[in-house]
Automatic annotation (TrEMBL):
<keyword id="KW-0349">Heme</keyword>
<dbReference type="InterPro" id="IPR009056">
    <property type="entry name" value="Cyt_c-like_dom"/>
</dbReference>
<dbReference type="Pfam" id="PF06537">
    <property type="entry name" value="DHOR"/>
</dbReference>
<dbReference type="GO" id="GO:0020037">
    <property type="term" value="F:heme binding"/>
</dbReference>
<keyword id="KW-0408">Iron</keyword>
<keyword id="KW-0479">Metal-binding</keyword>
<dbReference type="GO" id="GO:0004130">
    <property type="term" value="F:cytochrome-c peroxidase activity"/>
</dbReference>
<dbReference type="GO" id="GO:0009055">
    <property type="term" value="F:electron transfer activity"/>
</dbReference>
<dbReference type="InterPro" id="IPR051395">
    <property type="entry name" value="Cytochrome_c_Peroxidase/MauG"/>
</dbReference>
<protein>
    <submittedName>
        <fullName>Thiol oxidoreductase</fullName>
    </submittedName>
</protein>
<dbReference type="GO" id="GO:0046872">
    <property type="term" value="F:metal ion binding"/>
</dbReference>
<dbReference type="InterPro" id="IPR010538">
    <property type="entry name" value="DHOR"/>
</dbReference>
<dbReference type="InterPro" id="IPR036909">
    <property type="entry name" value="Cyt_c-like_dom_sf"/>
</dbReference>
<feature type="domain" description="Cytochrome c">
    <location>
        <begin position="361"/>
        <end position="493"/>
    </location>
</feature>
């Protein structure tokens, strides 16, 4: 099997928050290892000092970071309640919990992020299919007019919505209003032959929308399915210094890998900022991502997105006739600023569990294969977070997220054809891998990739194309025993 020895090169540390001595320390500790005889120092503590050692059970993703202060834990618990709360339509006797919709994808955050992990797509067997909740269908159309192209170029909007159905299809509505439609997924088996005689059947999805409630979609509409990702370590990802992310974008890497940042507009300041979250790095902060979900997924207003009508479009005139849930004595938004702070604290501080079996001989062999296959060119193993991170518990922590938070061309097989900010139709942000080995412990029905098409970690690898094609082909060329070791390493994360 050919390997990518150049992948072990260290990326320079040019951070503005560090003095020369600290830069040298950070460079040394984040240098990719070349020793696979034993685990690295602090490797079990993948979430830094916030890592928790708890009983491995379906609640393992739902613990607060171990280094949260007493006050921080109090805010976390309140945020947990809000994250799990079912919202209802207005008017309602539960005035602090109404305002859902009028159009929505779910009634709670937890409905999509199952136990703070991945969402669930409908079953691959037609007889097992269920309603789509955690899988959103994003909608966009090309910029056909000069004005539309100008708005995209200047960052006023990340994408152009369908003129009737908006930025995403919403299958639920309040009583008295029609839902937008229902998603139907059809799968086609794609066999892939591996070295050693094994054949893996990949499931290639196609998407249709049935029962349209407001007439036809735009003839050029593009669908982008998006599965709810896990919530682990978001505050730590937010605390990776921007200079480190941009340094990885600037350094040439083997196999034609060239990650790009997604620059997007901060809705509060109007300035261009670095995107870090969501499948195409279309959101800059945890707060922004949370407020966007309240608005788009549940139709709830926040200080950042103040419309009480979420993704309702002007063509859906009846949508604006329904009462909203803002209460004068509680504030002008359905989710007031203080509640947003609680949800943001919760979302920033869900703890990483300790790594398991880090010194197991086969796990170490799988780790070597992960490095030698050049998976680390995108799934960058470790960082030291910023000294001036917003929250004290996130500052100057050695963390192991296995991501560069950059966009990469993943090939035609995974392409959605939909642009989002600077992200193109074949590009996706490198998802973090920490916690991935406990995915099915938390949600036995969970699957992988942006649309949940991969039923196993091996299937997820085999869908890699574009910049990841060479690394993917190295996995195909492995012996069955080597592939099993690689998967064991991933399952230890």
């Amino acid at each position: 099997m050919a390997t990518a020895t150049a992948a072990f090169a260290a990326v320079p540390v040019l951070r503005s928050d560090l003095n020369a001595e600290d830069r040298a320390r950070v460079l040394e500790i984040t240098r990719p290892t070349a020793d696979f005889s034993q685990a690295e120092q602090f490797e079990t503590m993948q979430g830094g000092a916030g890592t928790v050692k708890k009983l491995i059970n379906p609640d393992i993703f739902s613990h607060p970071a171990a280094n949260l202060t007493f006050e921080g834990r109090q805010e976390f618990m309140v945020g947990n309640g809000l994250f799990r709360k079912d919202w209802v339509s207005s008017p309602s006797s539960t005035q602090a919990s109404d305002g859902l919709g009028p159009l929505s994808n779910a009634r709670s955050c937890q409905a999509c992020h199952v136990k703070d992990g991945r969402g669930t797509v409908p079953g691959f067997d037609p007889l097992e299919r269920s309603d789509v909740v955690a899988l959103l269908l994003r909608l966009s159309i090309p910029g056909s007019s000069e004005e539309a192209r100008k708005r995209l170029h200047q960052g006023e909007v990340a994408s152009l919505p369908d003129p009737v159905y908006g930025h995403q299809l919403q299958p639920f509505a309040v009583p008295g209003m029609a839902a937008e439609g229902s998603i139907q997924i059809d799968y086609r088996e794609v066999p892939v032959k591996l070295n050693g005689g094994e054949t893996v059947a990949l499931m290639e999805p196609t998407y249709r929308v049935n029962d349209l409630g407001y007439g036809p979609l735009h003839p050029d509409v593009r669908f982008s399915p998006r599965l709810a990702p896990p919530m682990l370590g978001l505050g730590l990802l937010e605390s990776i210094h921007q200079d480190d992310i941009l340094a990885h974008a600037a350094v040439a890497k083997p196999d034609g890998i060239s990650g790009r940042p997604n620059w997007i507009t901060d809705v509060r300041t109007g300035k261009q900022v670095l995107g870090r979250f969501n499948w195409k790095a279309g959101q800059p902060t945890v707060e922004h991502q949370s407020a966007n979900a309240f608005s788009g997924d549940m139709g709830l207003s926040t200080p950042m997105f103040p419309s009480h009508y979420g993704d309702c479009m002007p063509a859906q005139t009846s949508c604006f006739e329904f009462p909203h849930g803002a209460q004068e004595h509680l504030g002008e938004h359905e989710v007031p600023g203080r509640l947003m702070e609680f949800v943001t604290t919760y979302s920033q501080n869900l703890a990483l569990p300790q790594r398991r079996n880090v010194n197991d001989e086969r796990v170490l062999a799988g780790k070597r294969l992960f490095y030698e296959s050049n998976c680390v060119a995108c799934h960058v193993p470790k960082y030291v977070t910023s000294r001036d991170a917003k929250r004290a518990e996130h500052r100057f922590q050695l963390i192991w997220p296995y991501t560069d938070l950059l966009l990469h061309d993943m090939g035609s097989g995974l392409a959605d054809g939909q642009d989002e900010g600077d992200a193109g139709g074949r590009e996706w942000r490198t998802p973090p891998l920490w916690g991935i080995g406990l995915t099915k412990t938390v949600n036995p029905n969970a699957t992988w990739l942006h649309d949940g098409r991969a039923r196993s970690l091996l299937e997820a690898i085999l869908w890699h194309g574009g910049e990841a094609q060479v690394a993917r082909d190295r996995v195909v060329a492995m012996t069955p025993a080597q592939r099993a070791d690689l998967i064991l390493f991933l399952e230890s994360l």
